[in-house]
């Protein structure tokens, strides 16, 4: 039985995603023999594609590493998740899923944004789980556009130059936070998600405020209109810094 055009296109896109991710993994030594890798599964397209691509890479690379996934659910703030959908997705990939439920105290410090508090507690729960499961790698689904947007947000709103590294050593080296999708443009991920109905499996939090990031995304679209390679050049500029031509403080 011949495959449908959509299926053939989906398979071709997945191969492209896996090849690009594989190059990133190799060039930045993100995963090695014997690694215990935990994927933070939010329920969005990026983390789901990351898990699927890592499951494919696990069968393709000439060494062994273990792969598992975790979703941290924040209770009591209007957040909902399709637990069955996540479980079914992981089961199809043959990846064990750990589902955690936390109750962040959003009233403890009124001066802090609710999203910041919730995100901090969810990330903390993931790091705690890496210790419990003896995982030395925590993989997140950030891609190139996330890195560019973060760079611009930090420059515009905080007056600093920083973004999302490929790998970050945490807790004196006990665990490394890795981002295998960092060299991928979000558009290829969106296209693959659309072909495979990888719609967001979580209901957006009523406290979620994406205004700043959406504004930056709009800015990047304008940059692309001015220069087609503009967003990529911004990403590339982070590895091509000429300090002697910057007004650095002594």
> Main β-sheet: number of strands, strand sense, barrel status?
6 strands, mixed
Number of strands: 8
Basic shape: globular
In CATH terms, the superfamily is HUPs
Q: Give the DSSP E fraction (strand runs of 2 or more residues).
A: 5-15%
By oligomeric state, this entry counts as single chain
How large, in whole angstroms, is the Cα Rg? 19 Å
General description of the model:
With 250 residues, the chain is an alpha/beta fold. It has a single domain, classed as Rossmann fold (3-Layer(aba) Sandwich), CATH 3.40.50. Helix content is 47%, strand content 14%. The chain contains eight helices and eight strands, in the order H-E-H-E-E-H-E-H-E-H-E-E-H-E-H-H. It has helices at residues 5-27, 45-60, 83-93, 114-132, 144-158, 186-195, 211-226, 230-237; strands at 36-40, 66-74, 80-81, 97-102, 137-139, 167-170, 175-178, 202-203. The strands form two sheets. Strands 4-2-1-5-7-6 form a six-stranded mixed sheet, with helices on both faces. Helix 2 (45-60) links the parallel strand 1 and strand 2. 26% of the residues are buried.
């Amino acid at each position: 039985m011949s495959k449908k055009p959509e299926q053939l296109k989906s398979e071709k896109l997945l191969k492209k995603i896996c090849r690009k991710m594989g190059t990133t993994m190799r060039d930045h030594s993100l995963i090695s023999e014997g690694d215990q890798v935990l994927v933070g599964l939010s329920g969005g397209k990026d983390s789901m594609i990351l898990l699927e691509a890592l499951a494919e890479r696990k069968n393709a690379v000439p060494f062994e590493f273990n792969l598992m996934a975790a979703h941290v659910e924040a209770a009591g703030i209007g957040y909902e998740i399709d637990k069955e959908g996540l479980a079914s997705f992981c089961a199809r990939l043959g990846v064990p899923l750990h589902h955690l439920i936390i109750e962040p105290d959003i009233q403890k410090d009124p001066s802090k944004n609710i999203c910041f508090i919730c995100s901090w507690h969810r990330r903390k729960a993931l790091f705690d789980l890496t210790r419990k499961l003896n995982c030395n790698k925590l993989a997140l689904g950030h891609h190139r556009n996330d890195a560019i947007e973060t760079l611009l947000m930090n420059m515009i709103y905080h007056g600093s130059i920083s973004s999302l590294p490929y790998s970050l050593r945490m807790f004196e080296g006990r665990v490394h936070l890795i981002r295998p999708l960092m060299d991928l443009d979000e558009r290829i991920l969106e296209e693959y998600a659309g072909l495979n109905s990888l719609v967001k499996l979580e209901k957006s939090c009523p406290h979620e405020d994406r205004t700043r990031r959406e504004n930056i995304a709009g800015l990047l679209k304008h940059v692309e209109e001015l220069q087609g390679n503009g967003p990529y050049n911004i990403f590339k500029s982070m590895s091509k810094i000429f300090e002697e031509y910057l007004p650095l403080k002594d």
